[in-house]
Fold this protein.
Amino acid sequence: MTTHSKIRCSLRRFPLIGGIAIAAVFAGPTSAHKDPVKPEQLKAYQEVFMEEVRKGDLLFHGDQKMAEQLGVADDLSKTGMACAMCHPMASDTHPQSFPKFQAQIAKFATLRDMINWCIEKPNQGVKIDPESEAMKALEAYITWSNTGSVLQPGKF
Amino acid sequence: MSDELDRIRREMHSVLQPEGVRPDDSLKITRRTFIHGSLIFGAATVGQAFAWWPLLNTLDIAHAAETPFKFAWISDTHLYPRSLNTRFVDKVVRAAQEVQAMDPPADFLIFGGDLAQLGKIEELELGVDLLKEIKIPQHYIPGEHDWYLDMGKKWGELFGQPNWTFDHKGVRFIGLDTVSRGPDYWTAKNMTPEERMGHMATLDGTVAGPWAGVGRDQLDWMEKTLADWDKQRPVVIFSHNPLYEYYPPWNFWVRDWREVHEVLKPYAKVTNIHGHVHQVLYNEIGTLRSIGMLATSWPWPYAPEGLPKLTKPMIRVDPGDPYDGVGWSKIDVAANDQLETEYIMWGRKEVFVQSPEDHDKHVSEVIRPRIADNMWPYR
Ligand SMILES: [Fe+2]
Ligand SMILES: [Fe+2]
């Protein structure tokens, strides 16, 4: 009886969901949702991610060429210091603990806020655009390098 | 890496340590206690360690001297040219002033390596210039940052032989070179000297490989150097890298630790004082005790695994304060068989963690080696 009622419920919703899907087809690329994901697609998605990790790894380790390519060569550091000098393998960056109240900044902060704080204070550089590719690449590298760490948002 | 590290660490302990001996809660760390077998090994947790570790920032590490004396240690200044980074310069100036102001004065200064950041002539010369303010005798050993631009040429011109020995008031001191024998990772890849230095200067790099080692030739030299020394009398060995295996992925070790311990085994009172780790570290393996010193430049976080159970960790530092987590050390050698080290950490009254939240590993982390230095355009 319960099952039956659920099916009826689904049937009633179906036209609505169909409508959203059709709208989405007109609005943007959703055809990927229609077929099971293919190995080539997974590979492509992973490659996009790993390319950002690679760029972030280089920025994090003070690579000047990559910093120039991403337009942040004059900003990331003015002391010769690079992120990795205090954070080998991105240790002690604790991406799994964000967002949280960040004592140094004295406010509720995201990982990007903290990255910019490190650029400004220890590196004596200039904050970068939080939406820039450089910031996303740094975030990609830091989170990738901490793969396997358990989420502990808010932890000091 | 973790499995491999586990395997080799089990091997290290089985080779060098007796099994399962634990100190009781009232234990005070003294050399005598340790010599008589109270090695902590096995299941001690950080919490247990807090409970029994003496809460003071000096270590009682007992050693004989004919008359009491002090010496000072500075290392890991990582100087850039003055035009690029004045913070590191300021901290060396401060350390030099404080060492020079010691009263009674220290008998000598040990500089424990990584004077320069990228091995440049101007960086090394800047270091010499700043440390000239210290008027007592100075003894230098090299760090990897001093060496791999010109393979030790400038360093040798400034400081001479990288390994040396002298006796002082009943203690034999030995300085080791643990950096110059890195396997050649540059020739096949046609690296410029700057590229070679860059890979060496990256602690978490994957290209330079297991470069830290003492080498057979230097081990033989150390054996010869110790041959005429009474096995019950104290030996203090200075090295840039720790002489045991803490965390090989960051080269917090020497790759030939087995051979080092083999040479030192007959000697009952050996203390190794080392730099490179930029953090408070204490360990005992067999008859060798090891003490890790602070940098003046910046602190490294503790490695994600392998922190010796005998280490009471230093306090988690404030990255906004360039004077926090860094400093230099005083070492007192007393006539009653004792040797104490005191960490002079500028930013803190309390050098050691006071609660689990003070520990940088309070947020548990799993981290992995970098990849980009093994990919185009570096490969
Ligand atoms: Fe260093
Ligand atoms: Fe070093």
Notes: Residues 3-362 of chain B form a domain with the Purple Acid Phosphatase; chain A, domain 2 fold (CATH 3.60.21.10).
